[in-house]
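Postdoc handover notes: sequence design on the structure in folder B. Input tokens:
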């Protein structure tokens, strides 16, 4: 064995898996796994309507806003996109005639995204299947009290970790 260096196998580390069983880690893991699983199911349904998840989210945010319009900066704050990311998504939606941009009358640097009638029609086409998936995989597993509690808790956490998530929203 000349010239060959022998390496000993590393000694097994003393491993105490219980320290990783903290319920905070479990809660975060379950939340991440749930969101990933639901997102996967939604992505398939969105693709059938020629929309990405981000495009659907933008259309939904605009559709849920009185007047169907939001400042681009507010739209970015409400989504999980950067300002350049929201610009790219709105560019695609605008190219497809689902959204249009209009200048902000009080700030020449700002602009609004406005859902078009074609955008509303696309959103209306997607929504029944989306609601069916939500019902099938989430809300049917909760009674009304549990759903109300879940909504309260999610809003509480969301408002702390994403304080701009409702920027420009009505009410």
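Designed sequence:
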């Amino acid at each position: 064995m000349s010239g060959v260096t022998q390496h000993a196998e590393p000694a097994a580390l003393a491993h105490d898996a219980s320290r990783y069983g903290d319920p905070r880690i479990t809660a975060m893991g379950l939340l991440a796994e749930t969101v990933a699983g639901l997102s996967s199911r939604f992505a398939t349904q969105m693709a059938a309507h020629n929309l990405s998840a981000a495009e659907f989210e933008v259309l939904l945010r605009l559709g849920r806003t009185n007047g169907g319009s939001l400042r681009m900066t507010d739209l970015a704050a409400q989504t999980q996109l950067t300002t350049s990311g929201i610009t790219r998504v709105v560019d695609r939606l605008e190219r497809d005639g689902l959204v249009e941009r209009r200048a902000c009358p009080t700030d020449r640097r700002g602009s609004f995204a406005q859902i078009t009638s074609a955008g509303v029609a696309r959103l209306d086409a997607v929504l029944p299947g989306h609601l069916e998936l939500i019902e099938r995989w989430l809300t049917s597993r909760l009674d009304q009290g549990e759903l109300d509690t879940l909504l309260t808790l999610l809003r509480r956490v969301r408002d702390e970790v994403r304080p701009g998530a409702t920027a420009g929203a009505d009410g």
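Context for whoever picks this up: The CA atoms of residues 98 and 117 lie 7 Å apart. Don't rerun without checking with the PI first.
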